[in-house]
Specification:
The chain is of the alpha+beta class and 133 residues long. The chain contains four helices and four strands, in the order E-H-E-H-H-H-E-E. Helix 1 links the parallel strand 1 and strand 2.
Length: 133
């Protein structure tokens, strides 16, 4: 079998992110799991990742459970550069999980969106909440 790299930018406190890691593993992959709250981001890394995923910084911005509103990032006038700078300073502002494979990158919300990035999928999978995929 050939090596098929899978990278999951992961927050272990997030159920969707935990489901994505488990789905990738259930499909037989050994993903590189990047806990971005610990590792952090730099602006160039985010620009490249968002470009690959077809996302703008605003589309990748996590509103719930983040300081986005307090930082004024939800305002119409907040620029992409301001959002990127805030994401570098506050990694929690990046929505998750983002997955990268040779097929591309995507924000995997809902978690089953990860299947579009894989060569194979598990026979069946049950999410943490009991929902079968």
């Amino acid at each position: 079998m050939t090596y098929f790299p899978v990278t999951v930018f992961h927050n272990p406190a997030c159920g969707t992110s935990r489901n994505v890691v488990a789905m990738v593993e259930a499909a037989g992959y050994r993903p590189e799991v990047v806990e971005y709250l610990k590792a952090g981001w730099d602006a160039d890394q985010l620009r490249a990742l968002f470009a690959e995923a077809g996302l703008t910084p605003r589309e990748a911005l996590r509103e719930k459970g983040s300081p986005a509103a307090e930082l004024g990032l939800l305002e119409a006038g907040a620029s992409d550069e301001a959002i990127l700078a805030a994401m570098v300073e506050h990694p929690i502002l990046v929505n998750r999980p983002i997955v990268r494979t040779p097929k591309g990158a995507a924000l995997c919300r809902p978690s089953e969106a990860v299947y579009d990035l894989l060569e194979r999928t598990p026979e069946g999978f049950v999410k943490e909440d009991g929902q079968a995929v």
